[in-house]
Specification:
21% strand, 488 residues, seven-stranded mixed beta sheet, Aldehyde Dehydrogenase, Chain A, domain 2, binds adenosine-5'-diphosphate, Aldehyde Dehydrogenase, Chain A, domain 1, 20 strands, alpha/beta, globular
Length: 488
């Protein structure tokens, strides 16, 4: 039972959170939350739908009036309090996360700290929303730009980062003065609800942060993208769903931020520090069992170091211990669902049938009872394989070979995605050259742990639009208003 594992059992919430109230579905419906490491039901959560979402949006709209009476400094203090509470409760939040999502406890704890950093950052940024005074075109006029909250925000988040993908949206929305209605992934609602409980304790007014858990994603999504009171839709998830939401939001011309799929390449050049490249490509691939949108999807290695890289990389991968994320010895947890395991298996089969060779893993043996897949390395991957084009979202590292810089850049850019790319080289001028030529929103040079609250996270091409975090992140939640003062 989860309760017995938590220091503060009141963090385990199984109802929706609307206008400061914990609510059940009108018809009493609930859905199961399953631990992917054991396939056991760990909680049943209120299954809300379109009707409750509509109510939440309307109440969220009213709540903004209360929040707007606070000064930036007062808003900042409330957000800061929320940050403090998340940090104080990080072990409980991490346990809840491991139980519903599967990632190992150390990673879950890391995510809570990372997620909290967005709250801290935007608590500070809340105090730094400036307008502008423009040059006048005549002596009796003054022209101003003021920044105002865009309005109610509809947010939809995925299961792979059950805390950070939420704080990245909720914290800037609140800092900008917007209320927010969130639909968390049905696989991981408990982390979202625990965050709401802490937000309420911190003094975030009723209606400013609402959570609508439910399995009827399309129905909830239609409200969030269609209701006239919602002014902005922010989404993290697949490109397929992102396109649906953008099309829906277009009907009422809502602003959208989309953080969608990735197909990150790691380019390893002959002159790279080989140990750093191996470590970097390892972390970028296997974090969260390969289920992150900036995970290394394709490892491209120059011919001169190909054999050395494959053998060092394989050796490291073979050392992973797959198991329940709460077991101390585990270094990698399960995948989120059985379907995820099947998808990964089929990508591996496809690659092997087209001439790739396995050097590690390759199946779901070794850990019973949950949705496990062994960390896998495939050598001699090429562009004909599905794995070259599709987001793997699992612990499979395909290693491709290239000869020239030109070829590496062409292979790296040969995808409709453009989120993150990484390269390893000791040559400074090559670092610049390649960074500029990669069609990606984020590039890591000799580094793959590139994300933090201070950087603008986001992609280009079909990986999305908009940036989360950083000094740019607040703009997505603000509207610019021009005011002309005449007769002066
Ligand atoms: P993933 O592959 O990470 O599960 P999805 O894009 O399927 O990515 O899911 C991300 C989020 O989008 C989840 O909260 C999911 O419930 C939600 N979602 C899925 N389909 C729709 C839809 N048609 N409308 C609104 N939200 C959706």
């Amino acid at each position: 039972m989860i309760e017995q594992m938590l220091s503060d059992t009141s963090l385990l919430k199984t109802q929706g959170f609307i206008n400061g109230q914990w609510v059940s579905a009108e018809n009493g419906a609930e859905f199961d939350v399953v631990n992917p490491a054991s396939n056991e039901v760990i909680a049943r959560v209120a299954d809300l739908g379109g009707k409750e979402t509509k109510q939440a949006i309307e109440l969220a709209h009213d709540a903004m009036a209360v929040w707007s009476k606070k000064t930036p400094k007062e808003k900042s203090a409330v957000l800061r309090k929320w940050f403090d509470l998340v940090m104080e409760n990080k072990d409980d939040l991490a346990k809840i996360m491991t139980l519903e999502q599967g990632k190992i406890f150390a990673e879950a704890r890391g995510e809570v700290i990372y997620g909290a950093s967005y709250i801290e950052w935007f608590a500070e940024e809340a105090k730094r929303i400036y307008g502008d005074v423009l040059p006048s075109t005549s002596t009796d006029r003054r022209s101003l730009v003021i920044k105002q909250p865009i309005g109610v925000v509809g947010a939809i988040t995925p299961w792979n980062f059950p805390v950070a993908m939420i704080t990245r949206k909720v914290a800037p929305a609140l800092a900008a003065g917007c209320s927010i209605v969130l639909k968390p992934a049905a696989e991981t609602p408990l982390s979202a609800l625990a965050l709401a409980e802490l937000a309420q304790r911190a003094g975030i007014p009723s209606g400013m942060f609402n959570v609508v858990p439910g399995v009827a994603a399309a129905e909830i999504g239609e409200q969030l993208t269609g209701h006239s009171l919602v002014k902005k839709v922010t989404f993290t998830g697949s490109t397929r769903v992102g396109k649906i939401l953008m099309a829906q939001a277009a009907q009422t011309v809502k602003r959208t931020s989309m953080e969608l799929g990735g197909n990150a390449p790691v380019l390893v050049f002959d002159d790279a520090d080989m140990d750093k490249a191996v470590e970097g490509a390892l972390a970028a691939k296997f974090r969260n069992a390969g289920q992150t949108c900036i995970c290394a999807n394709r490892i491209l290695v120059q011919s001169g170091v190909y054999e050395e890289f494959v053998s060092k990389y394989t050796e490291k991968v073979q050392a992973f211990v797959v198991g329940n994320g709460l077991a101390e010895k585990s270094t990698m947890g399960p995948l989120i669902t059985r379907i995820a395991v099947e998808n990964v298996s089929s990508l591996v089969e496809d690659a092997l049938s087209k001439g790739a060779k396995l050097t590690a893993g390759g199946d779901n043996s070794g850990a019973e009872g949950g949705y496990f897949f062994q960390p896998t390395v495939i050598r001699d991957a090429d562009q004909s394989m599905r794995i070259a084009k599709e987001e793997v979202f699992g612990p499979v590292a395909p290693i491709f070979r290239f000869d020239t810089e030109e070829e590496a850049v062409a292979m790296a850019n040969d995808t409709e995605f453009g989120l993150a790319a990484y390269l390893f080289t000791k040559d400074q001028s090559r670092s610049w050259r390649i960074s500029e030529r990669l069609d990606y929103g984020m590039v890591g040079v000799n580094e793959t742990a590139i994300s933090s609250e201070v950087i603008p996270f986001g992609g280009v091409k079909e990986s999305g639009q908009g940036r989360e975090g950083s000094k740019y992140g607040l703009e997505d939640y603000l509207e610019m208003k021009y005011v002309c003062l005449g007769d002066i």
